[in-house]
Amino acid sequence: MTDLILIEAIKQDDNGAFEELFNRHYKPLVAYINTFTNDFQLSEDIVQQTFITIWTQRKKLPFIKSIKNYLHTVSYNAFIDHYNKSKRTDSFFEDLKEKALRDSIDDDSELIERRIAKLINIVNSLPPRCKEILQLNKIEGLKYAEIAKKLDISVKTVESQMRIAFQKIREGFEDDPSFLILLINMSYLKDNENQQFEN
User: What pTM was computed for the model?
Assistant: First the structure.
């Protein structure tokens, strides 16, 4: 069965065809993406996400002349998306660290490193939806209304989840008021969100 026939079968919800397509192209795709990531586990994650996307969007798949080229394109775009998100996340925490070092010149650098690690742990410990909303707002830069539309939820739900995130961060740094003030003054907790954090 050719790749094109497999794609047409996948559009008709054929699980067997999807499994066959996966078995044919998974390893070559991982090898291809690994040339960019140099991280085999990450490459596997990206390629797996590629096939998940194909299956979930199977009804909307375009006419494909070359499945190999199509899979390469989708996988590469997934890699770029992951890279950009990782870069924004790393940049945020690096900016926070830089400001902490600049504004707390007398503090022990190891203490600041521990503070940053603590903040990351708090963010990572948030409920999945809460963490996702926080990241969309503070890392992706989306406004509450944009997040609500993207996730198909109400703005009030976004506000509620952000309030939970701020509360968790506040609780985590109750014994470190100087760093808490620094967080409030940063873009991480800006404008109206500052008021929500302090309430």
Answer: 0.44
